[in-house]
Amino acid sequence: MNEQESARAELSLPHRRMRLLQNDVYVYRTLSSTNRVATFMAASGAPAGTIVLSAFQSAGVGRLRRAWIAPPGRSLLLSVILRPRIETRFISQLALLGGVALAEAIREETGLAAGVKWPNDVLMRGRKVSGILAQGSVRGDAIDSVILGVGLNVNQTEAELPPDCRDTATSLRAERGRRVSRAAMLRRFILRWNAHLEAFSEGGHPYLRAKWIENNLTLGREVSVHGADGDLIGTAVDISERGGLVVRFPGGIDREFLAEDLSLGGEHYRRLARAGEPPGPG
Q: Per CATH, the architecture of 3-215 is what?
């Protein structure tokens, strides 16, 4: 069975379908990847705003193809089908916008602070609680669809977090000290996402930049850039129209880096945690 046939087989087995706010939500007990199924649905004509949600995914991945591991029923795992009228070079802005929406939703739902770390992570007390990925499908020179994938650690205990990243990862439950409703978090995220997407459609990059700066935990910090030129130390000063990170190096030289060009590395998390990172914007 090829990948398309496998996705079609998964697609035919939703646990249920529901309407939530403006969005059709397809709910599954288990999937290989919500992004994979959403990509197939988008290619089959599913409208913008369609959401694929699963209690568990066996092959979820984040940026740089890193595995996303989550025990069944503990996380919010979803993908949103988008059909934005933007240039392909601006696709990465949607991941930044998703981080803003999720950080705000976490603060509103839990009363705890959260902020965004470039390019696609949401942090609480310097620890990663969520990752967001935007993957585009292009037809000719135009975007056919973008799949926004979201993985949020909700009710994992500290013992259920992967052993190799317990010093850099967390969950809403670990931070709040009690369980958090995944259904309530889903609704809160959709509310914030729909509102921001509508405003972004009107205001473009200036709107995104203002909202991202309000929520970010990266700008103004010394960052170690792991790029093709080796490790470079500079200060993060802005985000570009392409969603890249603008880093200022000694001598006042600014360079833009895209997400596929570099990783800030795990030391960025550890430095925030060791410094007793303030809980974030808001």
A: 2-Layer Sandwich (3.30)
CATH of 222-274, one of 2.120.10.30, 2.30.30.100, 3.30.70.980, 3.30.70.270: 2.30.30.100
Cα distance between residue 134 and residue 56, in whole Å:
20
Written as six digits, the tokens of 218 are 């990266």
Token pair of 29 as six digits = 């007990």
**End-to-end Cα, the chain, rounded Å:** 49
> What's the pLDDT at 270?
58
Tell me the torsion sign for CA atoms 273, 277, 280, 282.
positive
Residues in contact with 243: Cβ distance below 8 Å, sequence separation at least 6, in sequence order: 90, 91, 92, 93, 95, 96, 119, 258, 259
% the chain with pLDDT above 90: 65
- Which stretches within 111-181 are classed as H helix? 172-176
